[in-house]
Amino acid sequence: MSLKKRETTDRLLKVVFKATGLITIGLLGGIFFMLLYNSMAFFVRIDPIDFFTGSQWNPSAQGGYSIFPLLVSTALVAVGSMVIAIPLGILTAAYLSEFAPKKLQSWLKPAIEMLAAIPSVAIGFLGIVLVGPGIASLMGLQNGLNALNGSLLLAVMALPTIITISEDAIKGVPQTYREASLGLGANRWETLFQVTLPAALPGLIAAVMLGLGRALGETMTVLMATGNASALPHGFLDSIRTITATIAIEMGEVPYQTTHYFALFAIATVLFLITLVVNLLGEYFASRLRKFHS
């Protein structure tokens, strides 16, 4: 291939990649504009203060359009899942990176990655038939379809993301850091907790943020396993309904262009913004990790 043809090909590829990037950004902007446009139609009818500070989501009742119970429910299962997934994920990643024999790594890593491929409906089914009854029996409850059940299941779903990214972050710490620590008399565990993990912190935070984004956006699992009660929860043993589950349940049945219809767009906009912020934070810390490696 001549030099001129190569330059033409390079320019063409640059145009194609730039166009695909702009299309992606345009699609994202279009989705946000559609959500925002329909949300404005809702806020013309309902006071935004009541929307964010009310005590119930009950569209059949007058004034029952408050996102607050749904936000609390979503936060409850997301935080609960992270409390479980963060220590398990980071410690598993540290073990794989620093201590696990090569033979164990060869089958354990693919098994963890395969965990991400399990359909969410299958995990939700396990929550109904296995985890939920176990919680009910252990806690003396009538049923185990509650926030604790959802937190356990979402933790399982977030683990592959947290483990994979955390392992990459830990492996990215220069070997000289470990050698210097060991040379000063620290053992391998002291080196891990006092040198390696602090050095990998930006990547670990990115892993947590992306895992949190996974938990926030999950629909089918929480729809099946948390009881679908839209009342304000008071703890992990209460049945809940998240924002995603509310949209999935109600959007197919709501009359077109009613207040209820526009209310679902309003809560979808809030979820979109929360997820966007979480993912941007994750990308920010991931970019810091890439700069550290370079």
What can be said about this structure in brief?
The chain is mainly α. Helices cover 77% and strands 0% of the residues.
Question: What does this protein look like?
Answer:
There is one protein chain. This protein has a single domain (68-293), classed as MetI-like fold, CATH 1.10.3720. It has twelve helices and no strands. It has helices at residues 3-45, 48-53, 68-98, 102-115, 120-139, 147-171, 175-183, 188-199, 201-217, 220-225, 243-250, 259-293. Helix 1 (3-45) packs antiparallel against helix 12, helix 3 packs across helix 9 and helix 4 crosses helix 6 (147-171). The longest helix has 43 residues, at 3-45. The two termini are 33 Å apart. The mean pLDDT is 89.
Please supply descriptive tags for the structure shown above.
12 helices; 77% helix; mainly alpha; MetI-like fold
Number of domains: 1
What's the architecture, going by CATH?
Orthogonal Bundle
Number of strands: 0
**What integer is the average pLDDT?**
89
Any idea of the CATH topology? MetI-like fold
- N-to-C SSE series? HHHHHHHHHHHH
Helix content: over 70%
Structural class assignment: mainly alpha
Distance between the termini: 33 Å
GO cellular component, one term: plasma membrane
Organism: Arundinibacter roseus
Membrane topology: Multi-pass membrane protein
Transmembrane segments: 21-46, 66-96, 117-139, 151-170, 191-212, 261-281
